[in-house]
Amino acid sequence: MDVAKGSFLIKQGQRCNHIYIIEKGFARIFSVINGKEVTTLFARENDIITSTYALFTQTGSNENVEVLEDSFILKLNYEEFVNLCKEHPSLFNLFRFIMEKYYLALEERTLSLQFDSALERYRKLLSRDPFILQRASLASIASFLGMSPVTLSRMRAQV
Question: Using CA atoms, how far apart are residues 100 and 123, in angstroms rounded to an integer?
Fold first, then answer.
């Protein structure tokens, strides 16, 4: 399905029954906490994006999934997808691999926020995911890195 820039696939509080595969485009997951946006993930072509907690628990999402560029996204009903995986184990193995990648990226981000300096976090982003710097707003990048836009500006000047 074609999805316009600025559209939401999932909004905070909404139940989630789908996984989304970005065929073309760019999106992010963020939460609004005390009026402040906190970006937790960026996704691009061939990435899966969803509110994992809401999907697995069937509760309201604590996250928003926002499309940052005009995109083409595949929308899969999770229950139907699970049934398809039962019929095709190789599909399940692929899904498991993608979910492991997703989990590892979130754990790396968590550890980085806990133990790395702001400059180290920025350098890691430059080396691992430079596409984010070309496709996301500085405010979203700063919140993803756990710093203010002013601090991000200072880090960019140092590198």
Answer: 24
How many angstroms separate the CA atoms of 111 and 48, rounded? Answer: 22
- For residue 80, the model assigns a pLDDT of 92
Give strand ranges (E) for 58-139.
Answer: 64-67, 71-77
Residue 121 to residue 154: CA distance in whole angstroms: 13
Give the span between the Cα atoms of 114 and 32, in whole angstroms. Answer: 20
What distance in Å separates the CA atoms of residue 90 and residue 32, rounded to the nearest whole number?
37
Within 8 A by CB and 6+ apart from 66, the residues are 6, 7, 8, 9, 27, 28, 29, 30
Cα gap 90→104, rounded to integer Å:
21
Beta bridge partners of 43: 27
User: What is the distance of C-alpha 151 from the center of its chain?
Assistant: 22
Which whole-number Å values give the CA distances from 86 to 21, 35, 79, 90, in the listed order? 20, 42, 11, 9
pLDDT along the chain (159 residues), means of 10: 97 95 97 93 93 92 97 95 90 87 89 94 94 95 95 90
